[in-house]
Amino acid sequence: MTRHQLSLDRRIQSLFPVALASLLVLGTARLVLDALKTNDSFVFQLYGRPRGQQQSPAVVVSPEDRIDESCNVFEGKWVWDNVSHPHYTEESCPYLVKQVTCQRNGRPDSYYKNWRWQPNDCNLPRFDPLKLMQILRGKRLMFVGDSVQRGQFESLVCMVQSIIPQGKKSLQRVPPRKIFKVEEFDASIEYYWAPFIVESISDHATKHTVLKRLVKLDSIAKHGKHWEGVDILVFESYVWWMHKPTINATYGSPDVQEYNVTTAYRLALQTWAEWLESSINPERQKVFFMSMSPTHLWSWEWKAGSDENCFNESYPIQGSYWGTGSNMEIMEMIHDQIQDLKVKVTFLNITQLSEYRKDAHTSIYGERKGKLLTKEQRSDPKNFADCIHWCLPGVPDTWNEILYAHLLKSHQNLL
Ligand SMILES: *[C@@H]1O[C@H](CO)[C@@H](O)[C@H](O)[C@H]1NC(C)=O
Ligand SMILES: *[C@@H]1O[C@H](CO)[C@@H](O)[C@H](O)[C@H]1NC(C)=O
Ligand SMILES: *[C@@H]1O[C@H](CO)[C@@H](O)[C@H](O)[C@H]1NC(C)=O
Ligand SMILES: *[C@@H]1O[C@H](CO)[C@@H](O)[C@H](O)[C@H]1NC(C)=O
Ligand SMILES: *[C@@H]1O[C@H](CO)[C@@H](O)[C@H](O)[C@H]1NC(C)=O
Ligand SMILES: *[C@@H]1O[C@H](CO)[C@@H](O)[C@H](O)[C@H]1NC(C)=O
Predict the structure, then answer these.
(1) Most ligand 4 atoms within 8 A of CB, residue of 1, 12, 244, 260 to mutate
(2) What is the Å distance from ligand 5's center to 107 Cα?
(3) Is residue 264 a contact partner of residue 330, using CB atoms and an 8 Å limit?
(4) Residue-wise burial string across 104-133, b where 16 or more C-beta atoms lie within 10 A, e elsewhere
(5) Residue 372 placed within a domain
(6) What is the pLDDT of residues 204-245, one digit of tens each?
(7) Is residue 386 part of a domain?
(8) Which atom of ligand 1 is nearest to the CA of 40?
(9) Domain for residue 304, yes or no?
(10) Which domain holds residue 220?
């Protein structure tokens, strides 16, 4: 083994024990009652109460909403912007689970909420919750993946929910789904727990083991039937694969075999691709795939000589940076798989922009096994900091600004 491979294996092995066993658990989300008092929203004031589809106002797309096709929105930098960011606060969004409300959980610094992603060659459209809801009118948008993806789901719900009056919105838990419904738009934003996308023994929404993983590389039907007909599907799967360089799986027969993770991931993607080709109507449905969300488990990667993690980091990384936890081979594999499909899948390459954000993880201000860390655990960040999940408001809001920019693109012909 070369030195590189050795460090690679050490990295993959430690991804789980450090953080995951308890962190990837779906968690005990408890819905807080909506604080909104009025029942007449900003939406009604602007457009009146919609009655059926015919009267739906068209989505007004302004010139600032257009992004030039040639602009790579994934290249850029984080700029300080405490005017436009955050889009919401922990207090204003009743749907956040305890795992992500870092400030309420005791995080002393708050700069992490105020950075805006600025692409080098263009501006991202300003996020407008009303426009997003107009785009989603009569539609379902579903995030499929693991707990990182659940963070993106919660982020989007919080980004839009303030314009919907109380009583006209609801969050239901129908494991393995979570469904945010907006009555006046006949729309829903949903989340579906499937950490490997294909079937596995980790599919139970709350009772799942990460240490004994067993993936069925050629089975997807049980999940797929819940994805059928969904207008916008947003997939993500990464960190669960990375526990060890090998994974137990079945393929073609009930016999369990150990597979190289790269090989297993490729086979799972093929199964997913076949499902897409046979189930997606490209005229009516849109499919996105999120690139991997980076981890910041080893501070020596950005601060030579140190031996810690993301704990006590208050600022983004300046200059170029790519952590070894983000496996380029897997990224390329996903990209290649998508290229070959007849169904168009848009790959949102959010890894690089998130790599800079060593400051934005939940660290010791999140949960472990469904409970906030104890004082003793907090005093031991080396073992207890979560450098995988993100605080909200935070980085997943930016992923959603980019998703929003893409959804707007398909409405630009309305002007
Ligand atoms: C809310 O709606 C109810 C019935 O729809 C109405 O009686 C009440 O006055 C409304 N409240 C406000 C604050 O508009
Ligand atoms: C926003 O940031 C500027 C520059 O750091 C600071 O002077 C100002 O007080 C901040 N405003 C708020 C509302 O935090
Ligand atoms: C696969 O399963 C066997 C039997 O349970 C176990 O001994 C082995 O460690 C597992 N391999 C991995 C990579 O989890
Ligand atoms: C895993 O598969 C990849 C790609 O086929 C290969 O490059 C790598 O050497 C394999 N690793 C092991 C441990 O077999
Ligand atoms: C966090 O970092 C600051 C300096 O960046 C340092 O002064 C402080 O002692 C650190 N806190 C802990 C708990 O390590
Ligand atoms: C994603 O972005 C990174 C960083 O800019 C780049 O190196 C990589 O090639 C991109 N991946 C794909 C599949 O486009």
Answers:
(1) 260
(2) 13
(3) no
(4) ebebeeeebbbbbbebeebbbbebbbbbbb
(5) yes
(6) 877 776 678 899 999 999 999 999 999 999 999 999 998 888
(7) yes
(8) 14
(9) yes
(10) 59-410
